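lol ok so funny story. i was supposed to be doing the assay writeup but got distracted and ended up predicting the structure for this chain instead. priorities right. anyway since i did it might as well share w the group, maybe its usefull for someone
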Amino acid sequence: MSAKTKAQLLAEIEALQKRLAELQAVETESHQKNDIYKKTAYDLGERVKELNCLYGISRLVETPGISLPEILQGSVELLPSAWQYPQITCARITLNDREYKTKNFRYTKWKLESKIRVEGKRAGSVEVFYLEEQPKDYEGPFLKEERALIGAIAECLGRIIQRAQAQNSLLETNNYLESLITYANAPIIVWDPALKTTRFNRAFEQLTGYSADEVLDKELSKLFPETNRAESISKMVDTVSGERWESIEIPILHKDGKVSIVLWNSANIYAEDGVMLLSTIAQGQDITERVQAEEALRRSETLLIETGRMAKVGGWEVDAKTFEVSWTEETYRIHEVPLGYELPLEEAFNFFHPDDRPKLEIAFQKALEHGEPYDVEIRLITAKGIHLWTHIICNPIIVDGKTVKLTGTFQDITERKRAQQLMNALNQASVAMGTALTHQEIFNAVAEELKQLDISCMLFPVDLAQDKLITKYMSYESALIVKVEKLAGIKHEDFSFPIDTVNFFQEAVREKKTLFEENFEQVLQQVFPKLAKKLLAQMIKTLRIPKIVSAPLIVEDQIVGVFSVQSNNLTQEDVPATTAFADQLASAWNKVNLLQNLKKTIDGTIQTIAATVEVRDPYTSGHQKRVADLAAAIASQMGLSKERVEGIKMAGVIHDLGKIQIPAEILSKPGKLTDLEFNIIKTHPQVGFDLIKNIEFPWPIAQIVLQHHEKMDGSGYPQGLKGDAIMLEARILCVADVVEAMSSHRPYRPAHGIEKALKQIKNDKGTLLDPKVVNACLKLFKQGYILLKS
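and the output, tada:
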C-alpha cells in the first residue's frame, strides 16, 4: 500500500469529522425524540387522569336514585387523582353555602378555583389545593391543563346542578298536579286512546260509587247509561281524534244505577313530538240539579214549588177578616201535614213551641191591628213530633189604611240553627278545654256544652296494641250508665270491642272520616254480638240513641279515639260540626298528653322549660330571657338581695310557661284577637302556676308566675289583686314584661321601640304599675341599660 499523502490524510480526517458530526446529530435527534416520546406519554397519562375524572363524574350522574349531595361528594373525591400531585392534593366543592370536601381537606395558599354557574348566576365553586408547595416552573404550581380542567369540571357540575334542580322542580310540579287531581272537589277521569280508564280521583269515586278495581283499565263505556252509550262513546272518539270538545254534557252511570248529568271539559295529552296522543283528561261538574232546575223553569208553577222545596221556604197567607189560612206546598211539608189539609188559625198556632208561641201571637196581633211587619225565628213542633227551628216573615197588605191580609214566608232553618248552636257550643267548650289538665276534664267540658242542646256524647279511646275501642267516657246520667252496665254485665270503663267487628266504627277509624248513622240499633248489635236479643232491646230502650254521628280523633295522623254524639234530631248536616268538635278535642287531647309528659319531666332545668315555651311561640322567642334580665336589673336597682334577684330572674325565664297550652294559631295570629281568643290567652298565668306549683324551688316562682299580669288598681288577671296584695317580685316582672313586649315585634304589630315603652310605663305609674318599680326601671335605662338582643 502506498503511503497516503498529507492531503489525503487531511481529506479523510475531514470526512471522518463530518461523519462524526452527522452521527452526533443523529444521536442528539434521537435523544430529543425520546424526550418528546416521554413527555407525550406523560402528557397522555395526565390527560387520561383528567378524562377518568370527567368520566367518573358522568358515571355518578347516571347512578340510579343518587341525590345531588351524593353526586357532589363523589365528584370532590375524584378531583385529586386528576392533578399533577394527587398525593398532596385536596379539594372542596361549595354549593349554596354547603361544602363537600375530601377527607384530607385543608385550606392553603396554593389554590386553584373555578366558579360554578347555574343559569348564568354563581351558585358555588370548585377549589383544588396543594397541601405543600411544589417546585416552581414557568406555569406556577398548577398546569394550564389543570386550570382548563377545573373550569370544565365547574361547567359540568353547573349543568348537573341545573338538571337536578330542573328535575326537582319537575317532580314538585308533578306532585302538585297529582295532588290537584287527587284532592280536587270536581270529578276527574283520565283515559287512553283505546278508551280505557287509566286514572280517576276521589271526587269521581264519590260521585259514581265505583272503586278503583271496578273502573281502572276497564272500558270507558261501562260508565255510560245503556240508552246513551253509543252517543257518549261517539263523543269520546271525537275527543281522542282531536276534535274540539268544550263543556259538553254526558250522562254518567253510578254503581247503584243512578244517572248524573255531568258537564265535562277535556284536554288531550300528547308526547313530546306533539303528535302522538298519550291520554285524555276530563274534569266534570255534576249539573244534574241544574238540568232539573232548567227543566222546571219551563213550568212556572213547578219552578215555584221546586225552589221552595230546595230552600225549605214556603208561603202563607191569612185573611184579616175571615182568618182563613192558606199554605203553599212547602209549608205543608214543613209542618208534616197532608197537602190541602184545611186548618183554622188557632190550630196553625198550636204547631209552635209553647214557650215561643206568645211572642208570635203578639207580633201577629200588631201586624193585624197596626200593619207592623215582623221577622222572627221561632221553634215549631211538626205533626209527627219533630222539633224544628223556623224563620217567619210577615208583610201586612194594607188597603185604605186597614190590614186586609197578612202574607209572608215560612222557612225551615233547623240545620242552620243547629250548626250555629253547635259552633257556639264548640267555642264555649274550647275555652273550657283550654284550661283542662286531664282527659276527663276535656270530655266534661264538651259534654256540658252539648248537654244544653239535648245531645249526649261518648268518647272511645283507641287501644292500639289490641286494635280495640274502649267505652271509657260517657255523658249519660249515672243511673242510666249503671243500668246499661247491669245489662252488659261489665263496667263501661272495663269494656272494649274490636274495631273491625263494628262496621260503623271500622269505617270511621280506617277511612278517618266522620259518619252519620240513623239506625244505631244495628251498630249496638255488632258491639254486643253475644248479648241476648231481649237484653239488647232493653239496652237500646234505656240508651235512647236513635241517631249517631261519630268522628275519629286524629293526632299527627294517628287515631287516638272516636268521638260520638247522639240525639233524635241529628242529620247528615251535623257531620261538619261534629268533625270540628273532634278536631278541637284531638288538639286538646294532645295538649293534655304533652302537659302530662311535661309534668313527668319537669324536674329538668328552668332553661329547658323556657325553651319549651319558646319553641311553641317563635314570635316571642327570647322574650322570657329579655324580661328576666330586665326584671333582675330592676330588682338590683331597687336594692333587693341577691337571692331575691335570682328568684325574680328564674321566674322571668319561665313566666309565660302557661302559653304552652294556648293554640299556636292564637299565639301567632297577625290580626286583632277576638274576645274568646283573648280570654284563652288570659289563662296562661293560671296554667303556668298549676304546672309548677308542686315543684320545690328556693323562691316563690309559682306565685310570681301566677301574679305577673296583676295590676295595682285590681284590673289585672287572673285574681284581680290590688296594691300590696301583689308580690313585689310580680310587680317588678309586670313592668319588665310591659317594656319588653312594647319594644319587641309581635305578630299583630311592629315593635314600638324602647322610648314608647318607657313613656307608657310612666303614664301607667301609680294606676296599673308600682311607682317604685317604674322609677327604678326608668333610672336603669337612663344609666344606659340595653335590652338583650333578640
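Residues 68 and 165 are 9 Å apart (CA to CA). The longest strand covers residues 387-399.
back to the writeup now i swear
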